[in-house]
Amino acid sequence: MSKLAIFGGTPAATLHPPKWPIHDETERVALLEVLESGQWWYGKKVQEFERAYADYQQARYGVTCVNGTAAIEVACIAAGIGAGAEVITTPYTFIATASAPICANAVPIFVDIEKDTVNIDPNKIEEAITPRTQAIIPVHFGGLPCDMDRINAIAKKHNLKVIEDAAHCWGTQWKGKGAGALGDMGTFSFQQTKNMTSAEGGIILTDNEELADLARSFTNCGRSKTGKWYEHYLVGSNLRLTEFQAAILLAQLRRSPEHVAIRQANSNILLEGLKDIEGIRTLPQDERVTQRSWHFFDFFFDEEKFDGVKRSQFLRAIEAEGIPCWPGYIWPLYRNPLFQRSMSGAKGCPMSCPYREADPPDYASLYLPNAERAIQTYCGIEHTVLLGTEAEMRSIVDTFRKIREHAAELRELAADV
Ligand SMILES: *Cc1c(COP(=O)(O)O)cnc(C)c1O
User: Fold this and answer.
1) Which residues are catalytic?
2) Answer CATH for 25-252 from 3.40.640.10, 3.30.70.60, 2.60.120.260, 3.40.50.920
3) pLDDT tens-digit profile of 398-416?
4) Ligand 1: residues whose CB is within 6 Å?
5) Which pTM does this prediction carry?
6) 187 within 8 A of 211, measured Cβ to Cβ
7) Which of 92, 189, 245, 298 has most ligand 1 atoms within 8 Å of its beta carbon, as the pocket-test mutant?
8) CA 45 to CA 22: how far, in whole Å?
9) 202 CA to middle of ligand 1, Å?
């Protein structure tokens, strides 16, 4: 039995993840073309990308903007979420998902995630609905879609809008239709760590022309489709993407189907190879997910079943063996100072929001057990690793086995460094 790398042995994983972000001649030529054209600002490339990306996810309309955070904010405002309203969302996500409704003067209401995934639990949504609820923002975490049949049915029954945070879903499909095109609106991020990127960037998708026009107006200074250039209808902002970014995104989009296929094939090898390793629990596969982007290859680490090894010990060991692995968020979103009203000086809704002054949501005593547990157990192998070879995937499986065999030694390692 070979020695663990963390104790001086040879690393078992031989991975060569591509340097991220990936780019080649296509991006170089496209960027130079924009540079030399003199049209640097919103124009044909942005329009071409909006059309192409909407087609990719099978939505009727696409409206780009500066980043994924702004995309959710614009979607909330365009969807008509109003002052004092409640928006149901998940605590296991990036802050933007919950801060976006706040920008519309609404409050996020956190509903626990499922035990088996880190997606919002549809069974718990209805009990959180009140007369003030106006929307649901599910997050398809890691590119794994939430049960959109259930969520859309609940929304329809209670007359709520659905805004999908599809920030991990480039190419993901639910029953053959693109994520982000399943609810009323869907939003994506093209930030540098994402599976396709222009450093910063975002897009809002919808099948609803009126919502698309509103989103466009909010991202373009409140202008209208037909009005004069200095004619403004809404309190919007300037959130436009540039031609440089669109040129890069068009190149990245052309590469996406191949990348999705490679990540899927490799994830299947990992799912099969890791399924019998005691203490490692991969996420259940739903056959309604007909394509998945795999922003992370995610699994839960069960300390008890892994012979008492702590997740922090496991993560140190796996990194030393050569596998980059993300431990997930540091806490459920509601634990952030922003939501803990004891935090003095916090500004903005819901802390100092006149619409909810009389009955502010009580985040301080919120405890959502599955989200709290996921904070302790979640692990995600990064998407760049999933672009490797079949042999590399097999070496990942072998590495997990190696670490499992050395559980007793690992327990001796200092736990939290
Ligand atoms: C990255 C991300 C966002 C926001 O994207 P930015 O482009 O970084 O603003 C929103 N939601 C989730 C779940 C994300 O991972």
Assistant:
1) 194
2) 3.40.640.10
3) 999 999 999 999 998 876 5
4) 67-69, 93-94, 96-97, 139, 165, 167-168, 189, 191, 202
5) 0.97
6) no
7) 189
8) 20
9) 9
